[in-house]
Amino acid sequence: MTLPKDFLWGGATAANQYEGGYLSGGKGLAITDTITGGDGIKGIPRYITVKLADGTKTKLARGFDSEVPDGAVAYVDEDLYYPSHVATDFYHHYKEDIALMAEMGFNAFRMSINWTRIFPNGDDAEPNEEGLAFYDQVFDECQKHHIEPVVTMNHFDCPLNLAVKYGGWTNRKVIDLFAKYVETIVTRYKDKVHYWMTFNEINFVRDYSNLGITASKSNPQRQAQAIYHVLLGSAKAVKLVHKLAPDAKVGMMIAYILQYPYSCNPDDVEAQMEFSRDFRDFYLDVQCRGKYPNYKLKELERQGIVLKKQPGDDQLLADGVVDYIGFSYYNSMVIAAHPEGEKTGGNQMGGVKNPYLKTSEWGWPIDPKGLRITLNRLWDKYQKPLMIVENGLGAEDKVEENGEINDDYRIDYLRAHIEQMKKAVEYDGVDLMGYTPWGCIDLVSAGTGEMKKRYGFVYVDMDDKGHGSLNRSKKKSFYWYKKVIASNGEDLA
Asked: Coiled coil where (predicted)?
């Protein structure tokens, strides 16, 4: 057998894309609850609806470079559609959904806890018991089916009140508020959750809108300070898990988009190195090695950025080193010093088109071998156990007249990636803990806000405008993945 007997097979979701029940059970408003639907890319942009300081209402583009003016307050316009409000309604379907996961043979389920379900405003004196009880029920249901929860503490989210009142993670006070939330959930669930992760795709903290950061690249000092606060918050969370649940494992989570240089021209190789350091390696280095790497310190120095630090910060980062690395892998990209020609997409990032790779419906390069390369690079550099916590193909599925959903394209994508994953373990000796493909039950796309861009093994009847029965249907890939899990990855036919 290639994979260890205790290998974690499952699927992955996020509360703001899957859970729904956005004001149920005492939950408060989160930033994601103010982001409208759309397609995000092809003509119907997604917006954050805000009220400006002078009282006027407007829409701000939701994106990595969007400017959120000081004094702007995000709000919910009842005439607009917000995907997170219902999503695909795990809140009311959790028993049915977990039973479907169990039927596939899952022994792991990666999910996230919604911060505003525990602390509705983020700075409440006491947690919301109804919210805590909901996750108790979810974890009990998982336990009943012998499924290990792999829980992300923060998945692209921030309580709206913290963004309005404090400026989100630009304010150091939010570190302690996050730590209070972490202490609450780890204390409550320490006997039910044995795998934790701090921030989802932490290298996307530059998506200021989701984290309540009210400035973008036009204010590099503020951006760098906010990122510093997030990294301190992650380190503090790691320390809390180690203290409160010493038998548990706590990891980081990175979006690993493998970058290739466009050519052997040293300028392209240098551009790829610099891009990779800025986009990805910096966050890995801090969380796995416990300090800012020299190249980042030099970069900040050149930019005239001075991080505002407090005594004990360096020790906190050193003590907050993670136990394992969780990462998403969907695609690779090509970096050129002087990019020209056709571009391509891929998990919020673009690049020069790779002529050697096919692309998905949404223009993402499909690169299974890149997964093996990624696993080797991470293992060789950090020597920490790895977990693939997101991987998958977003596609528009068709329901046939007889009700079947024949998603062979998804099976082909997953099969090719699992084959490369196994090679990394068997031939290269990579220490791999588990594999949880993204959106195991259909959910709303984080990047585009669509429902038609589906990843799951289970189809959910819901359209891009939030209309549908929410009924669950098994796709062809459901039965294929069940067979894969039952054979511990040996039967991929």
From this structure: none
201 catalytic per annotation: yes
Q: Integer distance in angstroms from the first to the last C-alpha of the chain?
A: 16
Q: Exactly one of 19, 141, 201, 450 is catalytic; which is it?
A: 201
Would you state the structure tokens that stand for residue 105, as one six-digit string? Answer: 């043979």
The pLDDT tens digits for 250-293 are 999 999 999 999 999 999 999 999 999 999 999 999 999 999 99
Residues lower than pLDDT 50 in the chain: 40-41, 64-65, 215
> In the annotation, is 390 catalytic?
yes
3-state DSSP of 362-421: CCCECCHHHHHHHHHHHHHHHCCCEEEEECCCCECCCCCCCCCCCCHHHHHHHHHHHHHH
Q: What is the pTM of this model?
A: 0.95
Give the domains, in start order, of the chain with CATH numbers. Answer: 8-486 (3.20.20.80)
Residue pair 446/156 in contact (Cβ under 8 Å)? The answer is yes
Contact predicate 39/138, CB 8 Å = no
